Amino acid sequence: MREGNPVTVRREDYAAPAYWIDTVDLSFDLDPVKTRVLNKMRLRRNPDVPAQALRLDGEELNLARVMLNGAGCSFKLDGETLVLENLPEGNEPFELEIFTTCAPEKNTQLMGLYVSEGTFFTQCEAEGFRRITYFLDRPDVMASYAVTLRADKTKFPVLLSNGNLVEEGELSDGRHFAKWVDPHKKPCYLFALVAGSLVSRNQRITTRSGKEHLLQIYVRPGDLEKTEHAMNALIHSVIWDEARFGLPLDLERFMIVATSDFNMGAMENKGLNIFNTKYVLGSPATATDVDFSNIESVVGHEYFHNWTGNRVTCRDWFQLSLKEGLTVFRDQEFSMDMCAEPSARAVKRIEDVRVLRTAQFPEDAGPMAHAIRPDTYVEISNFYSVTIYEKGAEVIRMVQTLVGRDGFAQGLKLYFERHDGQAVTCDDFIQAMADANPTSELARQLPQFKRWYSQAGTPVVHAQAAYDAAQRSYSLTLSQSCAPTPGQIQKEPYLIPVTLGLVDATGAAIPLQLGSDSPALGSNHTLVLNETHQTFTFVNVETEPVPSILRGFSAPVVLDIELSDAQLLTLLAHDSDAFNRWEAGQRLALRLALTAVRAEGAPPAQPLSDAYLDAMRTVLRHPQLDAAFKELVLTLPSETYIAEQLDVVDPQRIHAVRETMREQLAEALHGDWEWAFDAHKNNGAYQPDATSAGRRALAGLSLTMLCLAARENGSPVWPGKALQHFKDAGNMTDRFNALLALVSSGQPLAQDALARFHALFKGDALVIDKWFALQAGAPDRGGNILPAVRQLMKHADFQMKNPNRARSVIFSYCNANPGAFHRNDAAGYVFWSERVIELDAFNPQVAARLARALDRWKKLAEPYRTAARESIARVAAKPNLSNDVREVITRSLAE
């Protein structure tokens, strides 16, 4: 919506609806130009709310008829809201019939009912249903739905909606119909329909209960062979959720449909999930290991919503993390449980934390900072954020840490016993967890734990230690603080689980005991920090330990601790906790990067120390460490993460320093990289399992480093080998890794490889997205990337209105390539402002996501800071901005 005075919605203003909708009978006559929608509803007054008019939400609808109990009635339109005042008195149900039309082919927002490549799709979360018919478009209104679809049989042979197919047949004039009935009540945001020429992969399964279910994945003709992995992921998800949490599939059939035009990753509509093709289609020839992993994760996520989001949903949109944070946690647990090896589980945990630190921590520190249960919003789509999802998942993970794995399962069971079929709040969930575990720290300190839901920002845990050799005691003082965020100056102490261990200089674990009269705690223990300052004293500590704090990243906090290089090297070499082992390497690299960035004059030519290089060589050559773990340790902290550690950011200097570090690491370990590539490049027939994927990842990193070193020494050997590896590759991962090695190292052979790649895959949209993104995200050398991006936008394959394609070029440049985006001449910012305005004209959701690229402009050094503000102001001055973009820009400019 575009309004002169956007309305701020406040959580404290929540009021129950004045009417309930019990049943909805929808009939669609589908036509891309003019779709007719007949909406027959049975409503009743809410006896707990004072009598008032019925106000139904609508947007871009053509109203043709309104009937009350079969007769005409009076109504009015208040803007786009349909208002009915003279409704029957009392609590008896009444029938309301509304006939409207809409134009799906003109719906470029991809919200509501729209057409993509000749097929009808819907996207109703959060407020898209009002673009289909007039309705109480809010999640706490749950109704039973029956849906009849009619369309031309030749053009739209497949007609799908939520629930069970109860009737289908032929109509006159070459048309046909299908009637679907959903056996479960649902809010309108979970409504879905699909109509088009599609083919399906079908699989019947029998669950633990002995019931048979039909699983289906619908795609466009020609894509069916790319759905095997998604189907396997769906089967594994069904099995896992019933085994881990006792949550069975509750539908006769479960359907997934893929479309290339989708604003999000996927949508959990009850029984009819609609997916971005990116998270369904995958074959060894066209998808990388990362793609296969993402498909498994997203398929799991949307399936798990069937209970955590569908069977129990949100009372209002402020409670969004109730379903999203919980379900992200569930999909993370699923992905880890799918890993056969403990090291693979650790790699998954590290990957999740990297996302949190590089995306959510900056959000927490920026103008769009909000709690996982916000207090206000202007446009709800702006709060489908990493805070709601990823930080929300970390809060759920802390719940499991505090109550235990079994206690968490019991809490989830109680949650469904109390609230199945209801629209509830975050408080309802956390109360169920506490009530199911009455002796847990969560239950004892529930009000304090709830601050995670109400306070924004990332807490900092400060750790100071003192060892008393005479007393053989080790005191650890932990304190916490949280910086002010917009609208929240003072922060109350959080309840923070801090998992830790102590190791000696040789890396051996030290037994833990708090006080001489306390029981032994083993070598791993979780402390609960619930005050501003607390001191914990461990006894019977024979030698000065090295602390390993925040193991497994037990809380979404920044750990401030002074550890010497020697201590970090000890943890890197010996820590039994894989996360902290990785973290030690990251801290060493980050320390060296910040020293170089802060140094006077030109960045040092060799910022990496000999000790660091020796440690990395040891990791790379280590015979027991998993290849995927090695790849993570040997990957330097990102430019974005380095920038977040600084008060004033010079993006070009950070870029220069990190590139110098990469080059030094490439040259110093040249022989080791050669060994690693040769040892890991051959993996037999392609399998997307964690072990094989890890080997390919390490081989890919090694090849990149060898090509980078070749650029510095001028040798043609390894670029030539990379090109040959590209040509000979038997799967997309190896092929793309070779292409990445050439492009990211600036090798002349990259252009030949890019041309070959495009020729090979020009008919595959998802692969060409990779081709675009690789070029837009390449390291900037002499300001060459922005001109390349502008040229890519003129390419015949570029389509601005396709979200995946727009993201592949524009987002890869503006959001993911800081060294190229933050230019001294401000041309990157000008480009950004042009694209935000252009996108906002037809797809506000995508535009608002792009608008977030300059969230952290106030941290920038000059001249970037002033230039960034001018570009933000340029967008703000554009009349008729969407609420989506207006909210982001307004908050960004706020002092």
TrEMBL record:
Gene3D superfamilies named in the record: 2.60.40.1840, 3.30.2010.30, Neutral Protease Domain 2, Peptidase M1, alanyl aminopeptidase, C-terminal domain, tricorn interacting facor f3 domain
Question: What GO biological process terms does the UniProt entry carry, in alphabetical order?
Answer: proteolysis
Question: Peptidase M1 membrane alanine aminopeptidase domain: which residues?
Answer: 230-437
Write down the chemical reaction(s) this protein catalyses. Release of an N-terminal amino acid, Xaa-|-Yaa- from a peptide, amide or arylamide. Xaa is preferably Ala, but may be most amino acids including Pro (slow action). When a terminal hydrophobic residue is followed by a prolyl residue, the two may be released as an intact Xaa-Pro dipeptide
The name under which this protein is listed is Aminopeptidase N
Entry's InterPro entries?
A: Aminopeptidase_N-like_N, Aminopeptidase_N-like_N_sf, PepN_Ig-like_sf, Peptidase_M1, Peptidase_M1_dom, Peptidase_M1_pepN, Peptidase_M1_pepN_C, Peptidase_M1_pepN_C_sf
Q: Where is the Peptidase M1 alanyl aminopeptidase Ig-like fold domain?
A: 457-560
The UniProt GO MF terms for this protein read: alanyl aminopeptidase activity; metallopeptidase activity; zinc ion binding
Instruction: Give the enzyme's EC designation.
Output: 3.4.11.2
Q: Identify the residues that the record assigns to the Peptidase M1 alanyl aminopeptidase C-terminal domain, covering every copy.
A: 565-894
One of its Pfam families is: Peptidase_M1
Which protein family is it in? Answer: Belongs to the peptidase M1 family.
Q: Which UniProt keywords are given for this protein, alphabetically ordered?
A: Aminopeptidase, Hydrolase, Metal-binding, Metalloprotease, Protease, Zinc
Q: Where is the Aminopeptidase N-like N-terminal domain?
A: 79-190
> What's the cofactor?
Zn(2+)
Role played: Aminopeptidase N is involved in the degradation of intracellular peptides generated by protein breakdown during normal growth as well as in response to nutrient starvation.
The answer to whether keyword Metal-binding applies is yes
